[in-house]
Automatic annotation (TrEMBL):
Superkingdom of the organism of origin: Bacteria
Lineage: Bacteria, Bacillati, Bacillota, Tissierellia, Tissierellales
Sequence ranges of Basic and acidic residues compositional bias: 868-885
Region span, Disordered: 135-169, 276-300, 865-921
Name of the protein in question: Bacterial group 3 Ig-like protein
Record field: compositional bias (Polar residues): 903-916
Signal peptide feature range: 1-19
Record's keyword terms, sorted: Signal
Length: 988
């Protein structure tokens, strides 16, 4: 099955590319596969997966002298496919245009430091598996190496015996380990100038040949093979101190792991210092005899032990001298007495020890915090294994582990199935793991940073399992990859406790704290009874927040009256996870029958909520409503000093995205529309199985309302069949919108590319007025198959300081002013009629808002530039006689002179009805690309769902990305189908 999973994952990940790219210039969405770091020019992008790569500026990459992760020096490797940690590889693509530094095994939170001679570049790893980049952009920093003062010249002679500022790692290029020898590849000039080498204070002898078998010998390779200069030694032991001397340099380090090139050198031990002749040892000094045991005898100094690990055996040795089997009296690991067996291979994973033919003491592998007690020659020695070495534990300190669960479970409903959030079917996938994280520590009084993720991969715990207080509830808690998630079919109402149990390496049972899981019966709880302070959490400012429980409330009360939001309630959370929603009301396309009031003194933010069509929200008498990452299918009615903000963060004064209006906002007398980015998904986002075909305006004005700050409104441009694209704003006969000074109102009618047959009007006046000293922008939607929308239509008056009004493009272009009954009073700016697009035009006009976030800065800047050029030009009270088709000039080269071809979709030229064969070719290519996109995205969906259903544990680290892949792929398939239907390529 593993091969099937691997194949499916490859297909799914290849589909991710399709789901995030523009297909044939037709379909696109906001792709974040490449991160742009605007604050610096070193890092261009980054990618995750099996290897972690950071693409960088070529000059900087080639000048890197030192690479550290969590302050541990990494060594450069020449192998591009090395699966060893603590190495880095400088990667150059074959076309020579992309340069990157490549790692293997980076973890979230790792701190990476890249140093040249002059610059230190630092950043943190956010997601080592991330499709959209692995680096947290907020952690990137750069500072000069000599920030505290002038950096000494590396070549400048330092005082004898003192370390200079030289980077010692530059002398070591690569370390090669084998069963019997170690070769250190070094700087050529350095190797050729080596005069002596000492290990543990004893001078070793240079051998003329490369065959090394005994300790005490080394061989200098001065370029004898293709791998370059280096020094070859007999196998080192853990803890060996090596000093290599030239005439004027002394390079030293301590051996940490003699079997692993990546962790060969102990962290922080690699140093270089300048020396002079007077500090050199006496050349006539005595050398050790090759082949003899090095170091003092146990009788000369207190005995100590070292631990060495390799794929073949794990051994305990004396740090100096030979281990004598007869002197071993007792061996205890993690409190368990070890018993002797004859074969070293039988010690793996067992509480046994054995002696090899060479007399080495072989034991089971040690892990972090394992304890070791050796009684040798009548004396007891105690150690803790930490940092890949034995650390003395004279006081026999015990390690006491703690485990805690962090977070809370989302509430559940009786009868709820697939409670981990994954459901089958062609398009029904929800990103709701409903889990809490699991952390552990070995500290007695832990700080926040002492808690580590318990992923189950380490050697600290066994028998890890999640437990629930009542197994009859139908809920099955499961531990996996550092979290507890919920599965099963819920069949019982109540509050159930969930915790984790594990056995540590010492055999002690560890039990975590307990987290409640609340289960409710749908329809039993009424909103009126739930909105009480006993259910809220109080914050430092005295206000309250409510974590909505149950997560779905369909009943308001028994009386049918309004329900009022408590004045002190400032935040209403459907959940604390993105794309996981609480639900209020029930699905309907009829007029709302339930009313929620945000009244005097109330200032409420909805976060992660779906408010269905049965609900009308009234904001009045100075109350304030904020929508954050929520969707409203019903109505919001604002009046008498009430204020609404959509997608606005008051804490940093920035406009965001995530909240949408799929119903309607109604502004009555005294209404205030504050800083907002309002976009509609009314025909795209359904209420369960209810699908809308709505062309009513996003906002309707029935009284005198005011705009404060920047407000952006865009109608839905999903397919509306014979209906118009959704208008942005309608002002009725008694309606008036005042745009305050330094305020702006941007209106965009629905309609873009091939999604809408008839473009929506940006602004409809039904006897209403637009007034004030602010700015009005009204851009109509496109109607590719039939007609573009009008910038402004109907009857009414516009008297603002400045206005930018444009009709929508289409086969039959829309007008800037769709009527001669639209009057202007001292308004400066410009009006632009729509046009029939040509093959030279961009698919989306440069002044249109086509994503979810507010219009891009470049769009706003172009509109402002056009307004500045026409700041003294009054707008006429009737449609302009002369069409201004290009006030916002597209980027790139100018259009060729002469007749221009229309967009291939229309099939006829602007100048007549003659068919152009090149247009037919373009259309056929376009259709083929759409069909190919559909097929490839279907494969991606099938592969991703196969993994989610059949290999949930294996894909747990990338689960969220697979779910997002399916969502994006489904969107592309649906859009492609709609276009192909309109082109007659497939049947309805």
């Amino acid at each position: 099955m593993k091969n099937k999973y691997r194949l499916a994952l490859c297909l799914a990940l290849s589909g991710a590319v399709l789901a995030g790219t523009t297909k044939g210039g037709v379909i696109s969405y906001d792709s974040s596969s490449i991160i742009s770091y605007a604050s610096q020019n070193r890092i261009k992008r980054s990618t995750g997966g099996t290897f972690q790569r950071v693409y960088m500026d070529k000059d900087f990459l080639e000048s890197i002298k030192s690479v550290k992760v969590n302050d541990e020096t990494y060594i450069k490797t020449e192998k591009s496919n090395s699966f060893q940690t603590k190495l880095y590889y400088l990667r150059i693509y074959e076309d020579g245009n992309e340069y990157s530094i490549q790692f293997y095994g980076l973890q979230a939170g790792d701190k990476v430091t890249l140093e040249t001679d002059t610059v230190s570049l630092k950043f943190k790893i956010k997601d080592p598996q991330g499709f959209s980049g692995i680096i947290d952009p907020n952690t990137i920093s750069e500072e000069p190496i000599n920030k505290g003062g002038a950096k000494p010249d590396p070549g400048q002679k330092q005082p004898d015996g003192q370390a200079g500022t030289e980077d010692a790692s530059k002398y070591i290029k690569k370390i090669e380990t084998s069963l019997r020898t170690t070769t250190i590849r070094m700087d050529d000039d350095f190797v050729k100038s080596i005069e002596s080498i000492e290990v543990n204070g004893k001078k070793w002898k240079e051998k003329s040949g490369s065959g090394i078998s005994d300790k005490g010998l080394y061989y200098l390779n001065k370029g004898d093979d293709a791998d370059g200069c280096g020094v070859k030694f007999a196998k080192f032991a853990e803890g060996d101190r090596v000093v290599i001397k030239t005439k004027d340099k002394e390079l030293s380090f301590t051996v940490a792991n003699p079997s692993d090139s990546a962790s060969f050198i102990e962290k922080g031990s690699l140093k270089v210092k300048n020396i002079s002749a007077k500090t050199q040892p006496d050349p006539a000094g005595k050398e050790d005899e090759p082949g003899k045991s090095q170091g003092e005898s146990p009788e000369e100094k207190d005995i100590s032990f070292v631990y060495a690990s390799s794929p073949f055996k794990n051994t305990i040795k004396l740090s100096k001298g030979k281990f004598e089997k007869s002197k071993l009296e007792k061996l205890i690991i993690n409190g368990v007495v070890q018993t002797e067996i004859s074969s070293p291979s039988g010690t793996f994973g067992r509480d046994k020890y054995a002696f090899s033919e060479d007399g080495e003491l072989c034991i089971r592998a040690l892990g972090k915090n394992h304890t070791l007690s050796i009684t040798y020659a009548g004396k007891e020695y105690n150690y803790i294994y930490d940092g890949n070495k034995l650390v003395e534990n004279k006081d026999k300190k015990e390690i006491n582990y703690k485990i805690k669960l962090h977070g809370e479970f989302d509430s559940l409903l009786v009868g709820q199935k697939k409670i981990d959030g994954y459901t089958g079917g062609s398009v029904s996938i929800s990103n709701n793991p409903n889990s809490v994280s699991v952390k552990y520590t070995d500290k007695d009084e832990p700080k926040k940073e002492d808690w580590k993720k318990l992923d189950g991969k380490g050697s600290e715990f066994t028998n890890i399992k999640a437990v629930i207080s009542d197994p009859e509830s139908g809920i099955v808690p499961t531990f996996n990859y550092g979290s507890i998630s919920l599965n099963g079919d819920v069949n019982k109402e109540g509050t159930f406790q969930i915790w984790l149990e594990a056995t540590d390496v010492f055999g002690k049972k560890i039990i975590s704290n307990k987290v409640d899981c609340h289960v409710y019966k749908e329809g039993k709880d009424k909103l009126e009874d739930l909105l009480i302070t006993d259910n809220f959490r109080q914050t430092k400012d005295g206000k309250y927040m409510w974590d909505m429980r149950p997560w779905r409330v369909t009943k308001f009360n028994d009386s049918g009256k309004e329900v009022n939001v408590p004045k002190g309630l400032k935040a209403w959370f459907g959940s604390h996870k993105k794309d996981v929603y609480g639900e209020l009301g029930f699905e309907t396309l009829e007029e709302p029958s339930q009313t929620l009031v945000v009244g005097e003194g109330a200032n409420l933010t909805f976060k992660n909520m779906k408010i269905f069509g049965s609900v009308k929200i009234i904001v009045k008498d100075g109350g304030v409503l904020n929508l954050d990452n929520s969707v409203v299918f019903g109505k919001i009615e604002v009046s008498n000093g009430g204020k609404i903000n959509v997608n606005y963060n008051p804490y940093n004064n920035k406009i965001t995205d995530g909240a949408s209006i799929s119903g309607q906002i109604v502004l009555k007398d005294g209404a205030i529309l504050g800083k907002s980015s309002i976009y509609s998904n009314t025909n795209w986002l359904g209420q369960g199985k209810l699908v809308n075909t709505n062309d009513k305006p996003v906002i309707k004005v029935e009284g005198k309302a005011k705009i404060e700050g920047e407000v952006y409104v865009r109608g839905d441009h999903a397919a509306t069949h014979s209906k118009h694209g959704q208008p942005a704003l309608e002002v009725g006969p008694n309606g008036e919108v005042e745009i305050g000074e330094k305020s702006s109102l941007y209106l965009y009618g629905g309609g873009i590319n091939h999604l809408t047959e008839v473009g929506g009007d940006a602004l409809i006046l039904k006897g209403g007025k637009i007034t004030g000293k602010g700015k009005l922008v009204a851009v109509a939607g496109e109607g590719i198959e039939r007609q573009g929308g009008n910038g402004v239509s109907g009857t009414g008056t516009i008297s603002v300081a400045k206005a930018y009004i444009r009709g929508g493009n289409g086969k039959k272009p829309g007008k800037a002013l769709g009527s001669d009954k639209i009057k202007f009073d001292e308004t400066k700016g410009l009006t632009i009629d729509g046009k029939v697009p040509t093959t030279y035009d961009q698919p989306v006009p440069e002044d249109y808002w086509h994503n979810t976030f507010r219009p891009l800065e470049k769009v706003i800047n172009k509109i402002n530039s056009a307004l500045e050029e026409n700041k003294d030009k009054p707008i006429k009270s009737s449609p302009a006689d002369k069409k201004e088709t290009n006030p916002v000039a597209p980027s790139g080269n100018k259009k060729p002179a002469g007749k221009q071809r229309t967009h291939s979709t229309y099939g006829t030229s602007q100048g007549g009805s003659t068919k152009d064969s090149s247009q037919k070719r373009d259309l056929k290519k376009y259709i083929d690309q759409l069909k190919e996109a559909m097929m490839e995205n279907k494969i991606a969906i099938k592969s991703a769902k196969f993994l989610l259903e059949n290999a949930p544990k294996q894909v747990a680290p990338v689960r969220d990305k697979l779910i997002k892949l399916v969502e994006n792929a489904n969107n592309i398939i649906e859009k492609s189908q709609n276009i192909l239907k309109k082109l007659g390529e497939i049947e309805d």
